[in-house]
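User
New here, help please:
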Amino acid sequence: MKLLKLHQTTTLEIYTADTSTSISLPFVDGGISAGFPSPADDFLDISIDLNKEFVKNPSTTFYGRVKGDSMINAGLSNGDLLIIDKSLEPIDNKIAVCFIDGEFTVKRIKIEKDIVWLVAENEKYQPIKVTAENDFIIWGIVTTVIKKV
């Protein structure tokens, strides 16, 4: 899967991907042993296509690379790759990529009647109350986080 950069800000890089190709990778379906491996594992013949696994709506799926530590307590670390689906309905408590006042940001959305809050998952950052004065859209919902180990 080839990523193409669409936009970059100080807090997030946004990409699109070519999902027209299939990427089949070997897949261990029976679980991964943390002890002694089974000799039968040498004969596995199962594969997985990451596009089919993670991309439910190809035309509305984008990728973002996290910059910063505001979502660290939600498990989103600097450099993580986010899979973002723009077709999903933004609902309370989801992690979303939002565009506010010219910047992309990833935050947990809290919806209280007609008020939207963007809440960081790091005590160093204060919640952001979205007001009528803000240029604001909920751009997409984070569906998957891909981490390097």
